[in-house]
Amino acid sequence: MKKHTLQRILSTTIILCLFWSVPAMAERQNMGEPAGKKESGALELDTMVVTAQKKEKKKLKVATNVTALDGFSMEDMGIDDIEEFTDFAPNFNVDKLTSHGSQMVFRGIGGVTYMSPTFNVNVDDVTIPYSAVDIFFDAQQVELMRGGQGALYGRNTHAGMLNVVTRKPTASFCLDSSVSWESFHTGKAKLAFGGPINENNRYRLALGYTTTDGYMENEFLGTDDGLRQEQFTGRFSYQHFSSEDSEILFTLLGDSYEAGFGGYAPIIADGRIPAKTMSNKDGEEEGHLLSPTLTWKKDFSGATLTSITNYSNSFFSYLFDYDASPQDVIMQDYEDEWSVFTQELRLSGGKEDGFKWLVGAMATVEDYDLLNDMYGGADSRLPYLPAGLHTITNSGISSKGAAVYGRLENRFLEKFEVGVQLRLDYENRELDWQTRYEMGGVPVMPLQNYNTEEDWFAVMPSFDLSYLLSENQRFYGTVSRGYRGGDFAAAQYSLDAVKATVEPEYTITYEIGYKGLLADKRFELDAALFYIDWSDMQVSITDGTSFLTQNAAEATSYGFELESRWLVTEGFDIFASAGWFCGDFDKYDNHPSSKDLSGNKLPNANEYSISLGARYRHDSGLFTSLSASYMGPKYMDELNEIKQDAYALVHAKIGYEGEKWAAYVYGRNLLDEEYLLHTFGNMSFGASGKVAEGAVYGVQLNYFF
To answer: Is beta strand 160-166 parallel, antiparallel or unpaired with respect to 121-123?
Structure first.
């Protein structure tokens, strides 16, 4: 991915066009911008209301650091997927394993384990067991909660969670549509429409389609579509008001995609990034999801009852050239299927500035089935996987869980607010594991079977205290305990690895911060300092073709986050953020390499990040936005042998907006930076990695009413 002269000219042209725009802006009501004049005539930022604590609450009053963006702002800034969201959220990273599979890293937590998939994204109050879904599709608002959220959400939210609120049916008919075409033969189309059926019923239907050849070239095969993909996404919502105080919402989310599983190449000895792959096979990837949800809300005198019922079924599979080389050495054929049923009941009440309460209960039933086939290719000379040998693992994990939780909060002495949360979480997991060895379909070794069962119980408290300087300024402090659930190494072919049940990982997070809405509500400032103490830390490494996971480490991390928004004038706002992170293994002396990794840095977390952006909208219809992020260095592995240096990302968008239509030209990664998305180590072949896409240019046309 060379920095071609044409790309530099286009990048410079787009950036210059942005600054030629007149910065005296006026809002358009139907574009839904978050800042501007109120009915009183005052120019001020809109108050962000978040729901990530299971009830509506002003972002200013939440005693933890929250990055919240509404859907229109995300469209303005070109945030189309979770990778681009990281540019605007300090100390939040994405470790992208496949074309559609991503592992989120909150303040260093999440980047060192590969057990059963961890899902910590909530879409409309439901945790979706599917990492490939277009989670920002038709989003009304996205809320990134940092710090331990286990006291309300339970397992795997001990560092944070992502909460997505989608757009609901509206009281009048509306339509939003867009089509775009960009680099690498990428086309995108979105359509959403809906409105009232009658006085008591509404609907909304949103559809999305994406196709691309991908950006990775394969020099060995002579192809350039190893990361090709085609994806369909749809969401249907039906809302019924049986009375003024009762509401029923049914949603059906569906997704299906096919993609290439390519892009990995052995990392060059001097640390240079492999910009092209040499795999002898491109590989394949596919998945689908069907997830219906029924939500019922009923207002009583002084209380609201909410019931959320969901069933999700997802499927994921891939074929992968494991050695990432021109030789036919190792291939992996993998697939899994999730079936998850959840039922949640919650009851809440209280006064806005007085005593408030929330109690809830939740039941979960999960079935997780997988097939993992590792086989030696024609060129394999490996003693543990010779040519033609298939190591096939079939596993199933059945899980049943129950939890009760609650939150109490109150204001006292006029200047203080206190909150107490507690969740009691129980889980039973059963493993049924089988591995067989075949050549030409004929067994060559005895069949191995193993069954086990574990019960885990976790107590997750949280306490927060806020001191109010005024109604729009406060200091806060929070202490919370969270955990990552225990698990089995169900995908491994080694019986010893499977028998080594991994116990839960626990964290205690301390956070102090400041939140303020200043300058006549035109300037917002959030700041947070945090310290995290890990125990029984789950870590994963690769031994041959097997991932081993252990409760092998203890660690601590600390850092800060700073975020701000400034409404300069009507239609012109500026935002900025900064983060710094330091995380180390305090103890890690049983790594299979026999190296003592105590003192090593935690992987997949940038040491620091800085971002700055601006958005302009002129009453003539001219629109511009520009953002730049500088991402600090990070290690990609626990051995600290693969290091990604600091890099800068610049994104821009310019266009014209009419009353019912809009047209834009945009660019991402305008400096054409090369940086790693993911790496994995292999004791037989060394390390392999995959780079992110280079500079992207596109055009977009919207129609709406």
So the answer is: parallel
Contacts for 589-592 with beta carbons within 8 Å, 24 or more apart? 590/550, 590/552, 591/541, 591/552, 591/638, 591/639, 592/541, 592/543, 592/548, 592/683
Q: Please, which residues bridge with residue 381 across strands?
A: 386
Contact by Cβ (8 Å): 477, 511: yes
Cα–Cα dist 551/501, whole Å: 9
Dihedrals φ, ψ of 39, to 5°?
Answer: -60, -30
Nearest to 686 by CA among 633, 635, 642, 644: 642
Whole-angstrom CA distances from 19 to 15, 458, 614 are 7, 54, 11
Residue 500: HSE in the Cβ half-sphere, 13 Å Cα cutoff = 18
Let me know: does 677 contact 98? Beta carbons within 8 Å: no
What separation in angstroms does the CA of 44 have from each of 28, 565, 573, 627? 15, 11, 11, 22
Residues in Cβ contact with 96 at an 8 Å cutoff, skipping those fewer than 6 apart: 83, 102, 103, 677, 678, 690
Domain ranges of the chain: 5-704
Q: Is 220 exposed, middle or buried (0-12, 13-18, 19+ CB in 10 A)?
A: middle
CATH fold group of domain 5-704: Maltoporin; Chain A (2.40.170)
pTM tops 0.70, yes or no: yes
| Token output for 79 | 């945030």
pLDDT digits (tens, 9 = 90+) for 650-705: 999 999 999 999 999 999 999 999 998 888 776 566 778 888 899 999 999 999 99
